[in-house]
Write a structure and sequence with these properties.
By secondary structure, the chain is an alpha/beta fold. Helices cover 33% and strands 15% of the residues. The strands form 5 sheets. Strands 1, 4, 5, 6, 7, 8, 11, 12 and 15 form a 9-stranded mixed beta sheet that branches. The chain has a two-stranded antiparallel sheet with strand order 2-3. A two-stranded antiparallel ribbon has the order 9-10. The radius of gyration is 24 Å and the shape is globular.
């Protein structure tokens, strides 16, 4: 703490003051281009950008992250010629010396396994989707399906971290934290970044939800995601203890804020500002969160649209409905994470169950936003951290234990709303769904494009830490113009 005071020399004070005045002037010039002025949270600083770099298409993001890596071969990337290769060794020229995970690196035979599902074309766009996704098929003309995603990471945690923070090693700010830092909040009653996690009911997948998936990294901790729990109080300690009224709580917080303000003025530590702001947010959430999570007043046709699991707290369907309610209330980034897609040995059983759990709620969210006029400025993303191999993990004669290994070279995801070109399939893979053949989209390209839709130039959106200007896209990334509306 004393180091902060020592570093704040007279010269540094004037330098920082000058930057502040310049930022105010710049913000006033840019404000006319922004889609709306952000709300300044109580006790906190103004957002870093204050206004977008250029007019934004999307105001908010709902990220339906599917932990474990959904198999593109069986869900989105239809390759009918693979039937001819059933059980035949995948050609070395296709595999191309690819680095494999330890689960198949030593496997002697790598026979081709074509899609275990059936495919059909849907909508005016003619998008190919498997029969396990009938509800997603009903919104085919609202989707942009990207088939040419690729990444370097081959294991789950590094790959998820790469997607959400721009680096495989933990420690960088997550996407939602970047947006909260840069654009501020659209509400004073709820956090600007909310996270919810769920998993398959069979607990077939051992994926762990690490806190750094929604952490603030080197940004002040006020920007990290607030996790809503699946049972009991959505947020710990949300309820006042017995004998403590709301008025008493207000008085305690006022006194505590006054003490923290004294400390903040003395030391200038931004974490003290975070503490003040988070206490205030917690107080407001005591009123806003119970109303948010009470879905009893939702019309029956809306509940039916999200499926039979919607009334079960902690389920993916329940979280999708809450995501819509959060978006309505001004939350900027909602991150839903659902585990269960890691089908190494249970492809023929668990894949269909996973689709049944997630297909209807995902499609319902898009339909619900659309009928409320919100899809236009809400970006919805559905996808995982990489794909699955075209070759079989296991033995071809052991159908019950068929599976697929991790595959970073190509995979699929879809997006809807928020400036995305609807009814589009972008990018192509080779005949084996093993390598990108056309219009590849790297993880950093994906991140740059999302920021662009939110009105942010990814090359100019930085934070100085340890002598370097960091950004979400690191030192790479190109906006993918072909998927923009």
């Amino acid at each position: 703490m004393l180091e902060v005071k020592r570093e704040l020399t007279r010269r540094a004070l004037f330098a920082r003051g000058g930057m502040g005045l310049g930022g105010i002037a710049l913000g006033s010039l840019q404000q006319q281009e922004a889609w709306g002025a952000p709300v300044r949270p109580a006790g906190g600083p103004e957002p870093a950008l204050g206004a977008t770099h250029f007019p934004a298409k999307a105001k908010r993001v709902i990220y339906l992250f599917q932990n474990g890596a959904p198999t593109h071969v069986d869900l989105f990337d239809y390759k009918p010629k693979l039937r001819e290769w059933m059980g035949v060794e995948i050609p070395p020229s296709v595999q191309g010396g690819q680095r494999l995970s330890t689960m198949t690196a030593g496997q002697k035979a790598k026979p081709v396994l074509p899609n275990v599902t059936e495919f059909q074309q849907h909508g005016r766009s003619g998008a190919w989707l498997c029969n396990f996704l009938p509800h997603t098929a009903s919104i085919a003309d609202d989707l942009c399906i990207v088939r040419s995603m690729h990444t370097e990471a081959i294991n789950h945690a590094p790959a998820i971290t790469f997607f959400l923070t721009g680096a495989e090693i933990p420690g960088r700010p997550s996407f939602g934290a970047w947006l909260s830092y840069g654009l501020g909040s659209d509400t004073e009653e709820l956090p600007s970044f909310v996270v919810m996690t769920s998993r398959d009911k069979e607990a077939s997948c051992g994926q762990i939800f690490y806190d750094y998936y929604w952490g603030s990294g080197f940004l002040p901790t006020r920007y990290q995601g607030v996790k809503f729990r699946g049972g009991g109080d959505p947020v710990l300690y949300l309820s006042n203890p017995d004998g403590v009224s709301r008025e008493v709580r207000r008085g305690l917080l006022d006194d505590l804020a006054a003490l923290n303000q004294l400390r903040l003025r003395e030391y200038g530590d931004p974490e003290i500002g975070t503490r003040i702001a988070q206490y205030e947010m917690a107080y407001r959430m005591q009123a806003s969160v119970p109303e948010l999570t009470d879905i009893s007043k939702e019309p029956s046709h809306i509940l039916e649209m999200y499926g039979p699991d919607v009334k079960r707290p902690g389920s993916f369907a329940y979280h999708c409905l809450l995501a819509r309610r959060l978006a309505e209330r001004g939350v900027r980034f909602v991150q839903l994470m659902h585990a269960g897609w890691d089908q190494h040995r249970n492809l023929t059983t668990q894949l269909q169950i996973q689709c049944e759990d997630t297909d209807q709620p995902s499609a319902a969210l898009v339909k619900d936003l659309k009928q409320r006029g919100m899809l236009e400025d809400t970006l919805v993303i559905w996808g995982g951290e990489f794909g699955r191999t075209t070759f079989l993990q296991g033995a071809i004669e052991d159908r019950k234990n068929w599976g697929r290994d991790h595959h970073p070279r190509c995979f699929s995801l879809w997006m809807a709303g928020g400036g995305i070109r609807p009814g589009t399939t972008y990018g192509e893979t080779d005949d084996f769904a093993y390598n990108v053949a056309k219009d590849g989209v790297h993880v950093h390209d994906f991140q740059a494009t999302l920021l662009h839709l939110l009105g942010i130039d990814h090359t100019r959106f930085t934070y100085r830490f340890q002598g370097r200007d960091f950004r979400l896209t690191d030192v790479a990334g190109q906006v993918v113009r072909g998927i923009l509306a």
